[in-house]
Amino acid sequence: MNAALTMSGATVSIAVLAINIRSWWKGNREIKSLLPFGGGMIQGASWTLCVGGLLGWVAVSTASAGSSAGDWGVSRVTGTNGAGTLTAGSMGVLTPAGACVVVAALIVGAVMLKAAGKADKKRIAGGLFVGLTLSATAGFAQLMQWLPDAYNALGAGAADVLNGVLPL
Prior knowledge:
With 168 residues, the chain is mainly α. It has seven helices and no strands.
């Protein structure tokens, strides 16, 4: 991903993350309540792996928009420019089979979004924003390095099954 997130852009993302965690903490604290936001966040982080494609373009555009909004807000609230760019990061690379799993996850995510209620749609959108923006940073990308490995392993397994190579 070629997007860089500013400190103030990260502040907006972390605020969205904190708001969602707080609402979960103040609520019933059931794990299933985290699924819409968490699923959106993983979906957003996944899109940052798709360099050169439509999903990669969405990721770069979202990180840029988050930085612009954060920079505008920080400068208006504090009078100080908050545009210090953070170190960019990368989670890894998708194999062709892993990329197919990302597309399958996109389709499943779209179906789930369509079926979700209004509150869950907002949580999914918030998670998507957080995943798309924070994955542009070196620290968050490092935390999410398991994600491309998981997609690549699932894709390799699916390719093996479709090729008739069944594990014993």
